[in-house]
Amino acid sequence: MQRSLKEEIDQKRQELQRQLEEMRVQVRAEARAAARAQVEEQVKKILEAERAASTEKLTDTITKERMKTEDEKLMVQLYAHQLEEKEKELKKRDALYKEHLAKLDTKCAEFYKVSVESFRKGKEETLSRFTRFNTQPVCGDLQSQILKCYKENTGKTLCCSRIAAAYMQCVDEAKKNKMRTGG
């Protein structure tokens, strides 16, 4: 009996050990599940917070970009208006300058006519006061010969000395004749 009691106690002990082990496994599984659920909840909260922060940041960025775009549109409109004003001013100045230029052209044309007429009258008056003298070149044939010789003998002026001497003698004779005749 003692043996059967001992076997029964051993059986009960093994059964209790097995139940205890099953309970430990179950408790560990429940603890893991609870920890996993808690981690998932925290991850979910963190993701939601990050999503909200990201959405808020994106909204702020979009708002800033819209404001920047609106500012740029206003600046473009302002520059366009300023450009139109400058173009109007330039057109006014251009018209004014053209008008002044036309007046100056008219005055210059009148001045030119007066100057031409005055020059013509002065020329006629000068021609009527002074008689014209008809002059003939002195020793023209020798002059053309000496020029031809100098051209043909560039840098060799001594080659032309005989013609040059004859030309100088001819010029001297012409001077003497002019002094004798008085004219």
Number of helices: 3
Distance between the termini: 189 Å
Note the main sheet: none
Assess the beta-strand content as a share of residues: under 5%
Average of pLDDT: 89
Give the beta-strand count. Answer: 0
Binned, the helix content reads over 70%
Low-pLDDT regions: none
What gyration radius follows from the Cα positions, in whole Å? Answer: 63 Å
H/E topology pattern: HHH
Give a structural overview.
By secondary structure, this protein is mainly α. The chain has helices at residues 2-129, 140-152, 161-181.
Essential attributes:
183 residues, mainly alpha, single chain
Quick overview:
The protein has 183 residues and is an all-alpha fold. The chain is 89% helix and 0% strand.
Which SSEs are present, and which pair or pack?
Layout: H1 2-129, H2 140-152, H3 161-181
